[in-house]
Design a protein that fits this description.
By secondary structure, the protein is of the alpha/beta class. It has helices at 9-14, 31-39, 54-65, 87-96, 110-116, 130-139, 162-172, 186-195, 204-207, 216-224, 247-258, 271-280, 303-333, and strands spanning 20-22, 43-47, 73-78, 101-106, 122-127, 143-147, 177-180, 200-202, 230-233, 241-244. Helix 8 crosses helix 13.
Length: 334
């Protein structure tokens, strides 16, 4: 592990060495990846709803503990559903397992704050707008993940990119927050810090690591892709999601453009198909998430190599390039 450190409000609050987060990702946030992130000094999240039942989640938490003695958390995504998952039981599994950090996403997590915070659990909530960030802060979350339009998954409906959204958050919220969307390297970390964030969240970048539990051909597909190789599906339904561009996602866009009803694409977007993509390695089997940042991803390092590289290069950028530019500016002014 690198001896370099970048200390922020986020690292102090969550007890990690580096201001880098591997957020929850469906079918991806499993023990082997999360433990590797934790062992490298960053913060990783097991994805609760990847586990079929709360009991399975408890087992996955325990499996992660056999691989690391460092802090890690659990992600809970809260989405409207006719038959919602047993969220209260998942929360109980988290509490009983002794996890002290939870990442929430989706709907405002009021009931989860009320359930988890009395147990000493700190909550990070993912938001795609300033108005949602302010609501989450008001209900008592401890930190925020501010997701710009570049991100994989659900970028919201405002289409505000990180270069605007992150400094707006810095001007508006008072609790620590991390920047998410479009970040893959040291330049992204330094830029996020300069814009006012206390760290960064990366998803697609962590998918493309040696410990990521997805099939090799999908990792290679990310490496080969450019920033233009994503699709925004569900836009007519106002439930936009950014996913990898393939024959399935392009067909979903085409069909909803003609008939904006979910029933028209239900079979194409079934979650089981996306899971098969990651397990079997065929990128055309279904819908799978990827961010525009794939245009910046050129290799498949170990998690430790990736985090060490990001932190080392970020420190060099801050200490050498940026400080020298500032000194040149002073000389010119003089």
């Amino acid at each position: 592990m690198t001896d370099r450190r970048i200390s922020t409000r986020f690292t102090e609050l969550f007890g990690v060495t580096h201001p880098v987060v591997q957020g929850g990702m469906q079918w991806v946030g499993r023990a082997e990846l999360v433990a590797a992130v934790a062992n490298a000094g960053a913060l990783g999240f097991i994805t609760a709803l990847t586990q079929p039942t709360p009991r399975d989640l408890a087992r996955e938490i325990e499996r992660c503990r056999t691989l690391t003695d460092q802090p890690f958390g659990v992600n809970l995504t809260i989405l409207p559903s006719i038959t919602p998952p047993p969220y209260a039981e998942y929360c109980r599994a988290i509490i009983d397992s002794g996890v002290t950090i939870v990442e929430t996403a989706g709907n405002l997590p009021t009931e989860f704050v009320e359930m988890l915070k009395p147990e000493g659990i700190r909550i990070i909530h993912k938001c795609t707008s300033i108005r949602h960030a302010l609501k989450a802060q008001a209900v008592g979350v401890d930190a925020l993940s501010i997701d710009g339009f570049e991100c994989a998954g659900h970028p919201g409906e405002d289409d505000i990119p990180g270069l605007v959204l992150i400094p707006r958050a810095a001007n508006t919220v008072s609790i620590p927050f991390i920047a998410s969307g479009g970040i893959a390297d040291a330049r992204g970390l330094v830029a996020a810090l300069a814009l006012g964030a206390d760290g960064v969240n990366m998803g697609t970048r962590f998918m493309c690591t040696a410990e990521s539990p997805i099939a090799g051909p999908i990792k290679q597909a990310i490496v080969s892709a450019t920033e233009r190789d994503t699709e925004l599906i569900f836009r007519p339904l106002r439930n936009t999601a950014r996913v990898a561009s393939n024959s399935v996602s392009r067909e979903v866009v085409r069909l909803l453009g003609k008939d904006p009803r979910f029933e028209v694409v239900r079979d194409l977007v079934a979650g089981v198909r996306g899971r098969r993509v990651f397990e079997e390695g065929d990128p055309e089997l279904g819908i799978w998430t990827a961010g525009m940042v794939q245009g910046l991803i050129t290799d498949i390092p170990t998690v430790a190599e990736l985090i060490d590289r990001i932190v080392e290069e970020a420190c060099v950028l801050i200490e050498d390039r940026l400080s020298s530019m500032a000194s040149v500016g002073r000389e010119v002014a003089a």
